[in-house]
Amino acid sequence: MDKKRVLVIEDSVFFGSIIKKKLTGTNGYAISWAQSKEEAIIMLNKKDHGFLAGIVDYNLPDAPNGEAIDELTNRGIPAIVFTGQLSEEVRNVVWSKDVADYVLKDEPYSIEYILNLLHRIKRNSKIKVLVVDDTSFFRKVISELLMIHRYRVLTAENGEKALNIISQHPDIKLVITDYNMPVMDGFKLTHTIREKISRENMAIIGISSEGEQMMAARFIKHGANDFIIKQNFLTEEFYGRVNQCIENLENIEKVKNASIKDFLTGLYNRRYFFDTGTKLFSNAKRKNINLACGMLDIDYFKKVNDTYGHDAGDLALIAVSEILTKRMRETDILARMGGEEFCILTVNADPTSLADIFEYLRKTIENTPVNIGNGTQINITVSIGVTTQIEDNLDGMIKVADEQLYAAKQSGRNRIMLNN
C-alpha cells in the first residue's frame, strides 16, 4: 500500500480541485481523482492502486445515495464521506456502511479536518490497540471499528490474558477493557497495568454496560484515561475518544523527544547521551556488560558547507544519521555530539567483531551518495575512533575514542582506528 495515495471521488470540479490542491504539495499525498462511480471502479480495479484511503461524495450522478462508498469499504479502504447534506437519514446510511468518518462540505475547516484524518489513518498502521472483553460480540464490534481506522488490533477475553499479551507486545499504546469479566475484571486489569506502565506510555479506556453510573469514576480512579458506555455509544464519539487518547500520547512523546533528541537528525542529544551512557558505563565498570565507544566525524565537512551551502551540509548530517540508525542495533546509543561529530555506545557487541562492524559502517557511508537537490549528488566519508577500554568515567572513555578519531584523521581520513 502506498501510504500517500488517496482516491478522490467527487463530481464537483470546485471541491475536487480544492481537495487536490490541499493534499498535494507540501502535504505530499498523491491524488487520483474520479468524477463518477464508474471512473472510480476503473481505478480501484487496478491491482496496484494501493490507496491509503478514499474521499467520496455521497451524491454522485451515477450513485446518488452513497453507492460509491461501498466500492471503497468492500475493498477494505477507509472511506471519508464528503457531503453537502447530512439529514438523520443520510447520517444513518453513512455510518451503516462502516466508513472512517464524514465531513460536511460547507464547514470552513472541512478540508483541514480531512487532512488531519488522513495523517491519523496513516500513522495508525503502526499503533497497537488491545481490546479486552469476555463477550466475543463486543470484541468483534470494537475491533472492526478500530481496523477501519487501520489500527493494529489485538484481543483478549479477560484481564489475565490481556496482561500476557501486554508482556509480549510492550509497544501497545491503548487498552480498551470491559469491567465485568471472569478471572480478572477491568478494574484489577487497569490497576495492574498502572503499577508498571504510566499514562505517558499507554492509554486505557474503560467500557461497561449502560446504567452503571459510578463505573466511569471508578475506572478513572483505578488509572483509566476515559470511559465509554458500550451499549449506546455513537461511532463518532468512539473514534473521537480513541483518537484523542492516542494523540495525547503522541504529544507527550513529541515533548520528550524535543528534550532528548537532536532536532535535525533525530538522534539523541548530548544530554540524553550522558544521562543514559553514564548508567551503561557504571554497568560496564562492574563488568555486567561489555561496552565500546565510537567517535565518528564527517571528513572535510567545512568544505561541503563552503562548496554546496549549509543546506547540503544538513542533508549530509541527516544521511549519516539514517545510516547509523539502520546499521546499528536498537540497544546501541547513537548521539549527535555537535557539528559533524557523532558518538556511538555499543552494548555487548562481540569484541572480535567491532572492527568489522565499524568498517562496514564506514564503507556504507562512503558508498552512499547524498542527494542535495536539483539532481546533484555528493559523496562523503567519515573517520572513526573506537575504544573498549573502561576508564575512570564515561568522559575518559570518550576522550580515548576521540584520540583514536584524531589518529584516524592524521593517518589520512576515511578509516577507523580501534583501541582495545
Describe the structure in brief:
The protein has three domains: 5-119, Rossmann fold (3-Layer(aba) Sandwich), CATH 3.40.50.2300; 126-259, Rossmann fold (3-Layer(aba) Sandwich), CATH 3.40.50.2300; 270-419, Alpha-Beta Plaits. The chain contains 15 helices and 17 strands. The protein has helices at residues 13-23, 37-44, 67-73, 88-96, 110-124, 136-148, 159-168, 186-196, 215-222, 235-260, 270-285, 301-308, 310-327, 354-366, 394-410, and strands spanning 5-9, 30-34, 53-57, 79-83, 101-104, 128-132, 152-156, 172-178, 203-208, 226-229, 291-298, 333-338, 341-347, 370-373, 376-378, 382-387, 416-419.
Please describe the topology of this protein.
Layout: E1 5-9, H1 13-23, E2 30-34, H2 37-44, E3 53-57, H3 67-73, E4 79-83, H4 88-96, E5 101-104, H5 110-124, E6 128-132, H6 136-148, E7 152-156, H7 159-168, E8 172-178, H8 186-196, E9 203-208, H9 215-222, E10 226-229, H10 235-260, H11 270-285, E11 291-298, H12 301-308, H13 310-327, E12 333-338, E13 341-347, H14 354-366, E14 370-373, E15 376-378, E16 382-387, H15 394-410, E17 416-419
Parallel strand pairs: 1-2, 1-3, 3-4, 4-5, 6-7, 6-8, 8-9, 9-10, 16-17
Antiparallel strand pairs: 11-13, 11-16, 12-13, 14-15
Helix pairs in contact: 2-3, 7-8, 12-13
